[in-house]
Amino acid sequence: MTARSGEQLPNESSRRRRGRRGSGADGGARGPRASFTELLPHLFAQRGLLAIALVLGLVAAAASLAQPLLLGQVITRVESGEPLGLLLAILTALVVVGAVLSGLQHYTLQRMGEGVVLSSRRALIRKILHLPISQFDRRRTGDLVSRVGSDTTLLRAVLTQGLVEAISGLIVFVGALIGMLVIDPVLFGITFGVVVVALAVVVVVSSRIRPAVAKAQEKVGDLAAQVDRSISSIRTIRAAGAAEREQAATEKDAEEAFSLGVKVARISAVIVPISFLAMQLSFLIVLGLGGYRVASGAITIAQLVTFIIFLFLMITPLGQAFGAISAVGQALGALGRIQEITSLETETERDAERSPDGRIEPLASAVAEGAPAIAFENVSFTYRSAAPVRADARALVRTGRGSRRDAEAAPAEIIETPVLHDVSFTVPRGSRVALVGPSGAGKSTILALVERFYDPDSGVVSFSGADLRRLSRAELRAQMGYVEQDATVLAGTLRENLLLAAPDASDAACERVLRAVNLGGLLERGANGAAAGSAAPGAAGATAAGAPARAAGVAAAGSEAGEAVAKTASAAVSAGPATGLDLPVGENGLMLSGGEKQRLAIARALLTAPPILLLDESTASLDGVNERLMREALDSVATGRTLIVIAHRLSTVVDSDKIVVLDGGRVVGEGTHEELITSTPLYRELAQHQLLVPEDQA
């Protein structure tokens, strides 16, 4: 990453914007594209089924090509009065065999199509879940969801709508051409000329499908993002009386997707009449000219009938070829959007290159005894976000009805927001350090850098003396428990949320941490089968006397020495069945109060018993009673651990070993509460507003 000094960065309130053109998310107006050769690996990934489908197609093609020849023999024998013998039976058998083989091939192709969709979705899911956090800063969630759901489905059309069928049909096509050429070169020449002209027109028209499909899929992604935004914020939208405006905006995206879809349909529709005209014209020519040549004695009736059947055999794969060209065009447009994501680097892909030593070191050998748990040395950081470059969809729709010119591409707008400037401080092992300051001071960004969601532009963040860039992200994060500012609760049950970071934890351990953070009432609610939407009884059922036992339970759970005590405490407090952990929490924790969600997030972090806890406003949504109980629980679990706590309510951190005061992305003071009252005006002002300064010091 390019180093930047703090002096080169503008102040906190400034934002720099610059335009650039690129590929992928920053691609041109026509959006990401893929070539046919890039589609082949998706087909070859299903090589076993592909081989079966081709073999079935070849056998079916041979059966189809034999039918006109046998029918010609039947007509000849009828004309000459000879017995038919087994010809009719053989012809009937060939027809039945061809039909059965076609059915088997159709199933095989459908199975292949589903396999291609599955492999594409796996690749996307694998990539999306490991992208750098910065990619999620610049991309809309709904658009990513659309690529997994909608774009991958279009790849199925490559197989189910004719590509592989066209390959086997090519055998029939070539065989029919040879048969027609042998029967009558004159009829063949005229018929083949019509087919070549039609095919050339189809290829030219189909070249316009790919960019049109890319734009249509892009707008479908915008629609999905808009729907996701509206649904996830439905309560805020209803409370603000903005439902009608959101409906209008979403419907507008839907209408634009419709318009772009219609444009694709218009282009595709041109292929249908061209194919129809080619077939009809070929058939009429054969009937008219063929009848004349029969009358002149150039060919026999049996030969004409055989020629006509070969014509029909040629027309079927020709139609498949036209459909395959259209399907491939659409699939390549969708594949371009898929590859735009799968070609991105994962979060860890270049970690070895970014390491100062050029390699990732094991945590055990990289850390230094006696070094601070966490240290910041002259760290500066800037958020960078960018909207994907794309054509203006509204202009595209407007001009599409008139001149049909594509909207001009605008370069991507890179927005840079400097957040931290030359930040330096240390967090000693086993200490509790609080980060305080006004909103926007960079407190949450510091925790994001500690978790290595981002790397600093300049300076060093270290863990136990080791530069974070030298360490495996997985090993580093295993040493930390992180509770976000907006407590994240996943749809599912209490158990599923708790086991997210500790999948092997027992039910007893899960119940223990829930009771320690005063969520025992949720266990009772789940065990008794109470209504999921009822008010939380956790706080009402708690007493101050029970807090020490709960805190002791968590402390014992976090240390091997106290394991026996923890088990005893668990047996004493966990009278209810473990099924209480199966209580549904609803989408985004809908069934929980704000305080319950925050406490559940803390319990999830405590369950892993990490040596470092990062708490971002962990008590912001708690009432006074639960805040006190939570502080007592954290006090007990803090023994032998390092805590970095962000808080706006200074009353929750006044007893911290060190308080770091931030303002405008810079450290303006360090020390204890008493020291900062006298040394740091900003801290004294914050404390005065919260009535934490004695009158004689105010």
TrEMBL record:
TM segment ranges: 49-71, 83-104, 163-183, 189-209, 267-289, 295-315
Residues covered by the ABC transporter domain: 397-689
Residues spanning the signal sequence: none
Location relative to the cell: Cell membrane
Entry GO CC: plasma membrane
Membrane topology: Multi-pass membrane protein
Top-level division of the source organism's lineage: Bacteria
CDD domains, per database record: ABC_6TM_LmrA_like
Protein keywords: ATP-binding, Membrane, Nucleotide-binding, Transmembrane, Transmembrane helix
Location of the ABC transmembrane type-1 domain: 51-330
Molecular function terms, GO-annotated: ABC-type oligopeptide transporter activity; ATP binding; ATP hydrolysis activity
Gene3D superfamilies with a match to the protein in the record: ABC transporter type 1, transmembrane domain, P-loop containing nucleotide triphosphate hydrolases
Pfam families: ABC_membrane, ABC_tran
Main location: membrane
UniProt entry tagged with the keyword Aminoacyl-tRNA synthetase: no
Name of this protein: ABC transporter ATP-binding protein
